[in-house]
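Onboarding guide, step 5: your first structure request.
Type a short instruction followed by the sequence, for example:

Predict the 3D structure of this protein.
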Amino acid sequence: MKKRKLTLALGTGLIALGLAACGDEDEGTSKSGESGELSGEVTMWTASLSGEPFDSYFADLEAEFEEMHPDVDVIIEDIPQNEIQQKVLTSLTGDDVPDVVNLAPRYMINIAEQGGLLDLNDLVSDDVKNSFLEGPFQAGHYDDGLYALPWYLTTTVAWYNSNHFEQAGITETPTNTQEVYDTAKAITDSTGKPSFYQIINAGDTVIQKMITLANGESIVEEGKTVLANNEDILEFFTLTQKMYEEGIMPQENAEGSFSTAQELFMAENLSLVETGVTFLGPIESGSPDVYAASKAAQPLNDPNAPMNVAVMNFSIPSKSDNPDAAVALAEFVTNAENQLEFAKVAGTVLPSTTESLEDDYFTNPGDSPKALGMLEAAKSLERSKELIPALENVSELHEIVKNAYVKNLQGDLTPEEALQEITDKWDASFEEAGLTPTF
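The system replies with structure tokens like these:
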């Protein structure tokens, strides 16, 4: 068994996990031997997964696949996630083309549009296709083609400080925006501190919240934004502005980052937030008492509303020298057994296969805060999908919403004015880009 090749020193953020493939050598590759058995070299990139426990996991994976296919030589390399798209595009202009590539859906669609990925519809069986959850599986489609198989997932849960809830006499987490306001106000009145935080990031999380609140109604129809008459989205803008004005939300919420939410929660200056399981990472080590008091629940909305899921996929570049082995390796890495094992190794991600989620690891995980977070995240996966389509102007859409939402929080725009600003600027962006999406 070869030693895994690490091409770069990488960061430790688990949310940046990913896989991809790029061959440094192309000698000896072929689709199959004369007997039809797989043979030759197949190269797979991983992204931001250097070091333990990942080195051992992939070494075992490589050894098992090579034992199943003795004539195949697997090479696994590690590349930063934020460089993968460009490296794949660059490789397609030359001869050193990857065989298996981990791509987020937005990168996958961009490369597929340029003809850089194989359509997998006729290359994988119905059994393989049916093994995946529907929402994550659909994230691998573009036009009428299937350009990726889903691997690991992250989705949203509600985290709350149970000590603060108990102090305020709160026994249940809220399921709509008015209940969020009432709950957060009661906690702030009891503790004297801000209690609720809306993560903004680049604006994407606010858009996801808006789509969840729309609960099946489109917020954009054929390139025209339709927000003005959505009472639930208007209520969200209205009540979060009110919470900010009343000190129920901290002043730092205008910055709105994930890391700021972690810092405030760790310092017990925050009691309730929606985000992923990775949220507890630094809290577990930095503030054990707060970690022990942390509880997880379903997201703070209608329990039947669609939730966003972040998907990491595997794709096969169209110029792969060994597509048969590449498809087989992608199927192997994403099968139920290997997805379950990877979820255990990673600790804060979810698998995309139904069978993996039926394991006791997810259905009966124990009572630690992180385990309960995984349990709640797994429950919401059946209603999860990628809520924001991978559009070429998506970064601009994010920025428009971020700016309008922050101005709304700070009282520079009324909720109605904020939604109108989003409508006008989104419509102009769609028109300029020549796009007519519905979502």
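Each response can be followed by summary notes, for example: The first strand starts at residue 5 and ends at 6.
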